[in-house]
Amino acid sequence: MKKTGIGEFEELVLLTICVLQNEAYAFSIKLEIEARTGRSLNISGIHTTLYRMEDKGLVNSKMGDSSKERGGKRKRMFSVTPYGLKGLSEIKENRNRLWNDIPAMILNDVSKL
Amino acid sequence: MKSSPPKLFLKLLLVMFPSSGMEEIEGDLREDFYHNLRKMGSFKARLKYMLDVLLLVKLFVRKKRQKRKYSPMKNLFSYYLKFSFRSILRERVYQSLNVITLTLGFSCFGIIFLFVFNQYNKDDFLEDSDRIVRLNETVHVGVPSVLKEGFSEIEAASRVMGVLVEVSTEKLGEALTTQAIYVEPDFVNVFQLELVSGENLRAGERTALVSESMAEKLFSSKEVVGRIIEIDKYDEKQSYFVSGVLKDLPVNSSFSNDLVVNDLKGERELSLAPSSRIYHYNSAYFRVTEGTDLTTLARRFPDYLSAFTDHKELVDVTYVFRTLNEIKFNIDIGDSFIESVDGQVVNIFSIVAAVVLMLAVANYINLLTTISLRKAKNVSIRKVMGASLKTLLTQQVAESLIISSVSMVLSLIVIGYFINPLENYLGFSLQLNVNMIWWVLCLVVLFLLLLTIFSSIYPVILLSGVKFGELLKGKVINSSRGKLMRNGLLVVQFAISTFLIVGALTFLKQMSFVYAGHNKSELGEVLIVKGVLGRHHGIFKQKLLALPLVSQVGMSSMAPGPNDNKKIKVMSKGFTRGIEIHAMDRDFFDIMRFEIVKGTGFYPDGRNRKEHVLVNESALVAAKEEPLGKNYDLNLVKSASILGVMRDFPTESLKSEVKPTVYIQFETPLAYSNYEINPTKVAIRLNSTDYAEALSTIEDSWDEVYPEQPFDFEFMDDRLERVYTEEVKMGQLFGAFTSIAIFISCLGIFGLLTYLIQVKMKELSIRRVLGANFISLARLLTTNIWIVLLMASLIAFPLAFYFLEMWLDSFVYRTTLTPSLVLGALAVFFLLILLSVFGQLLRVSKLNPAEVLRDE
Lengths: 113, 856
Hints:
The complex is a heterodimer of chains A (113) and B (856).
Chain A: H1 8-20, H2 26-37, H3 43-56, E1 59-66, E2 74-80, H4 82-101, H5 104-112
Antiparallel strand pairs in A: 1-2
Chain B: H1 8-16, H2 23-67, H3 76-90, H4 92-120, E1 132-135, E2 139-140, H5 143-150, E3 154-168, E4 176-183, H6 187-190, E5 195-198, E6 207-211, H7 212-219, E7 228-233, E8 236-246, E9 259-262, H8 267-270, E10 281-288, H9 294-299, H10 301-305, H11 312-315, E11 321-323, H12 324-328, H13 343-374, H14 376-384, H15 389-426, H16 434-464, H17 468-472, H18 480-517, H19 520-523, E12 526-530, H20 537-545, E13 550-556, E14 569-570, E15 579-584, H21 586-591, E16 596-599, E17 612-616, H22 617-622, E18 631-632, E19 640-646, E20 661-665, E21 681-686, H23 691-705, E22 712-715, H24 716-759, H25 761-769, H26 774-809, H27 819-846, H28 849-854
Parallel strand pairs in B: 4-9, 6-8, 15-20, 17-19
Antiparallel strand pairs in B: 1-10, 1-11, 2-10, 3-4, 3-7, 3-10, 5-8, 6-9, 7-8, 12-21, 12-22, 13-21, 14-15, 16-19, 17-20, 18-19
C-alpha cells in the first residue's frame, strides 16, 4: 500500500471542497464540515490545513469575490488538484479493498449497529 | 448588529507582515465572527476570534518566509550557522565535553557569585551606611548620650543590646521566642527606621516598637498601637506598651527590627559621676554627620569625658569607631545585634569561583584547539578553494558562540534548579535584586562575546599559519607554537586542580583534628539541661543526686558549645581588657574534664574559699602581670584570688577568639543575687546507657522544681557538634566545587590524550606492528603529561602552602600542613592520568594497526 501523505482531517477537507465545488472557501468549508459531522471547528484550523495542503500541491486556490459581511475582503476559493484527487481515490481504493476482504460475519455485526 | 470583532491584534499582525497579502483570512475571520455572534453571543465570539488570530500567527510568519527568495550566499549569517552546526555535530563527543565543562564552570561561578553578591549587598537599603558606626565593642551605658550632647558631629546615638526574649500577649496562647533589641529612643534615627503607624519610643516609659510582621504574629493585625505586650527577659516578666509599628526590613538586612524595646536604665546606672560604680557596658551605635573623620572624633572623647568623670575605665581607654560594614564582615568584632558573616569565607569562595571559571575556560580553549586541529584537512581544502582568514574566523566564532551560549542557557537552568535547595541548606539568601538582573544579563552577554573571541582567535591563528599544501599531502600539524600554548594551559589547569585538592585534603585534616581535640567519648554520657535555675538550684541538685541513674551533677552559667550563654563583662585594673565572668561549681569542672595548665583547680576539701577563682589561658595573656596567687577586684568578688589557669576551649565557633574569662564559684552567694549571673546549665553525668529511662526521671524532677519552665536538654557531644555545623557545611560546598574542578581537569586530560593519540596514530600502529607492548606505548604517550604535572606541582604547592597557612591561622585550633598532603594530591592525579591513558590505549589497541596504516 502506497503512502498518500493525506491525514484524516485533510481528507475530510478535500472531500468537502469537492462537495462544495465552486463555493469552497475557508468559512464555507467550516460550515459544511460542522453540519455534516457535528463537530465544532476553529476557522484557524481550517486555514492551517488549507495552506498546508496548498504547499503539498493537493489544492489550488484563486481569489474570488467579496461581500459586505466580509468587510470588503475577497475570498480565496479552493479547488482540488488532480494530484489531490489521485490521493483521495487511492485512499478510497485502499479502504474499499479492506472492506471487501472483511468476512461476512463481521460485516453483519457492523450493519446491525 | 453592534458588536464588532476585536481588530487590534490582527491589525498588528498585518502591520508586522504587510507583504503577507492574506486579506482572505481577514475576511473569513470576520464572516466567522458574525456567524458565531448569532450562535453564542458577543463574549464567546470575541474570545473565539482572538484565539483564531493567535493560532494563525504561524501562518503569517510562514507566508512571509515563503515570499523571500532563498539565496544562501546572500545571508552569510545563516550560512555560517548551518556550517557551524554541521561541524559541531561531526565532533559531538568533544563538543559535548565542552558543553559539560562550560556548564559546570558557569554554574559554579553563578552560584558563588550570587552568594558573594548577596553578602556584599547586605543592608544596601540603608542610606549612607558608612555613617552608622559603633564605638568600641562595648561602652559604658551612660557614655552615648553624654557624647551626643557634646559633639555636633554625632547626629544620633543609642546603646543597643540584642537579647533572646519570650513575648506573649493576652491573645497569644503560647509565648513567642524572638530576638529583641533593647535600645534608646534615638535608635530609630541612627538606622533611619520607618514608622508605619504610631510614634517613636517614649523616653523613660516602658514602650516598644514592633515590625509589621511581628504585629501580625502577635495580634494578627497591623493596628496594634496602644496594645500591651509581655516581655520575658531572663525570666523576668514586664509589660510594655506598643507605641508604634515599624516597616518590615528587607530580607538582606543584617539585623532584625521585629521587636525594639526601650532600654530603661536608672539614673544611678547611667551616671558617670565619680561616686557611682561603672559596670554596665553595652554596644552603642552612632550616626555621624557626613564627612566626619572618625579617628579624630574618637580621639577627642577621653578629654571630653574627663570633665564628667574621673573613672580610669572611661578616660584611659582608646576609643575607636567601627563602621557597620567592618562589623558585618568580621566575626571577631560582632555583637549581639548585628549578624556578622565571616569575611574570609566570602573571600575564599570568590577565589574558588574565579578558579573554577578559569579552569573551565582553559579547558574549553584547549579542547577547541584540539578539535580545530582535527579538522585541519577540512579547513585546508576550504582555504585552497579560496576562503579567506576572515571566513575561517567567522566560522570559528559562530561555532564557539553556539557552544558557549548553549552552556550558558544550560547553566542558568542548573542554577535555577539548585538555588532553592542550596538556600535552605546554607541558610543564606541567594537572590538577585530585580534592578540588578539587567546588569547581570549585560555582563553575561559581554562575557560570552569575550570568551567567544578569545577561544576562536587562537585556533584560527594556529591554522592560518600552516602550509596547507603539505597538510593535504598528509603531513600532520605539530606546530611548536600550538604545543606550547596547549601545554601552558594544561599546566595552569593542573596547578589549579592540585591547589584545590591540597585545599580539600587540608580541610579534611583540620576537621578531624578539631574533632579529635574534644574528648567526645567522655562527654557522650553527659547531659546538659538548660533553664533559668534561680535560687532553687540547690533543691534541684539534691533531687537529681537522689536518682539512681545519675552519678554526678554540676551547675554553671555557661557550657562549652554554641553561643547561648549570657555574657557579663567586667573591667578590672589587673587586666588590659574586659574579661567575661562565668560561674560554675566544682562538680561541673569535673564533669567537663576541664584541663588545668597552671596552678590547681578548685579545692575539693576544706581549703576551698569562695574567693577562689580560675581563669583561662586568654585571660593569662590579658593579665598585666603574672596573676597566679594575686588578688583582684572583680566587682562581683571583691578580692578574688586566682587559683589556676584552665586550657582554652572553643565557644561560639571555631574561628572566634576565645575571650578572656574568669570562672568564679557558685558557692559564692554574691554570684547570683545582685548580679545577673544565673545558673543556667546543669551538667549531669549518667552512669548508665539507658538514656530514655534516665531522661524521663530527670524530667520528672525538673517538672517538680520548675513546673513553669519547659524541660530543655541536649547531650554534650551533640552540643559540641553544633559549633562545627557552619564549617562542615562550608567544607561540603568546598568539596563539591573541588570535585567539579577535578572533573574538569580530567576532561582536559582526556581531550589532550585523545588528541595525542590521533596525531600519533600511525606511529603507534607501526610500533605495534613491530611488536611494542602496552607499557612502552603508554610511556610514549604520557611523558609529556608527567612533565606538565611536575611543572604544575612546582607552581601549585608553594602557593597552596602559603594560602592554606593563612586560612588555618584563622582557627584558634589548627592542624599543621604536612608533605603527606602533597603526596596525596599527586597520588590522586597519578591515578587519574593512568586511568585515562589506559582507557584510551585500550580503545586504540582494539583497532587493527594494518587498517590504520592503510588509511589514505
